[in-house]
Amino acid sequence: MERNTQKIGLLNLLLLLAAAGLTLALALYSGTLSGQVASAIFGIGFLIAGVSYFQMRLEDRERLERLDFDELKKSKSAESLFTGSDEETLPAYQSRLQFDKYFVPGFALLVLVLEALAAGLFWRWLSTVTVTAPKEPTIALALYSTLAIVLFVLGKYAANLAKFQGQQLLRPAASFLVLGFYLGAAMAICIGWVWSGGTKADFILARSLCVLLGLVAAETLINLVLEIYRPRVKGQQSRLIYESRLVGLLGQPEGIFSTAAQALDYQFGFKVSETWFYQFLQKAIAWIILLQFGVLVASTMVVFIGPGEQGLIERFGKPIAGGNILEPGPHLKLPWPIDAIHRFRTQEIQSFNIGFANEEKESHRVVLWTVKHYKEEFNLLVASKEQSQSGTNAVERAVPADLLTISIPVQFQIKDLLAWEYNHTDASKLLEKIATREVVRFLVGADIFELMSSGRDAAAQDLKRLIQERSDEYKLGVNIVFVGLQDIHPPVKVAPKFEEVVAARQESEARLRIAEGYAARVVTIAKAEAEKKIHEAQAYRARKIAGAAAQGEQFTSQLLAYQASPEVYLQRSYLNAFSRGSINARKYIVTATNTQDVVILNLEDKIRSDILDIPMPSVRK
To answer: What is the pTM of this model?
Structure first.
């Protein structure tokens, strides 16, 4: 190996080190995210360039040792000392073999670990970082552009030298240098874009570089696996395991076919690049790509709007005057990027929530005031009639307000797509803020106990009307379909005390209702007793009056009967008095009066009847 090649390798090594240091320092100074990820790529390139340079030194040392060995073999005195197999025992040759056999695979594994770690750590870091505009963008733009130019010139020189002189150890570092040109140019373009208003351009480039590191790590892993099963041909130069074909392709995109041919030849062990199919593909690839691009462009001219959707067509980013709303079905348009279609679900009921952060709720769960229903709940200010009426003066009177946790889902539907899309930058966010403002305004004038009981439905209807009126004022082009009040309860921290107050109110109401029931029962019974006694007195009076009148009439009738027949009257009166007086008396009738019989009467009461007391049936004739 010539000394010039080693100098180029050393220059590549120093350039990658300088590029890594300069990129990292400039990225930390200006705050560019892509620069920090690019510095890691340059750092990995520096390690690869260092190992390549060390291999150059080993091969050069082996070349010099082989020259000395050949000179010694030419002398006749040394012919008996050296044989053809003795060159394999040369120290430099054995050192290079051991280096290629053990160190190179180990270094490739180290590169794989570094690439994977860098991709994962930077990706996780970018997920937590806050995107800000870079400081001193003009300085960063100038330095990145200068770095790109320097890397392009020296990288192209090293790449052409490796290509035309067959110096494969120059290829890895040269590929990283040319890749550095593209990275520097991309970072300069992103800084200019951010400077002109594109805030996320640098962030997107940083994410893309993380993906690139991940792809290179995957390629390195595949190379390590394929190296195990690669067919070995004696005398064929093996490819460097740690050299990335992807980096070489990105650094020199014009060499895509040569890179593919080398990879296929290397893996299959024969000249795949000399087959007819490969030759045909190499000649017709431009037309094939052009045809595919044409089909891709033509496919963007046909668009299908799904059921329940409407589409807005924009030409060069601006709405077309008249007829730019597309209804469901197939439509034709100019190819992308001239015309672009934006779809909206105008027939779908969309919703957002006020008072809590949206999350999936468990089905059939028990709702308790003392337990949070959502991950994040917001307390809203509500009026209180009881507090405003309590106290005798301004000092004793409590603030007429309470805190209440309310979950308010709001459902809406887009009715004017043009107004929804073009009247405001973010119509959905504006609608949510309008609804939140109207809810806050409404609640400060509503009573807490009415909201938690009978006034909930009326409050929901009032909120729906207010939100619809404000949306129409701002020309949002939406129809408010539903506003619900659910999960109304006091804040979780004060819920136990509030439950005690509610329990006391319920107990007071229960005692009041019991007293009212007792009063109603006692008063009703008292009224009934009074009415009963009044009616009894009236009946007694009527009975006495009627009895006295009847006695008077009876006396008159008796007097007339006595005057008509005194003897008969007296006899009948006697018999009537006797019959009334002897109703319950035992009677013994003696029919014969002219006999001398002695009648013995047993006047004792019979406790138990006997057979003589059984009544006999009458004799039937």
So the answer is: 0.46
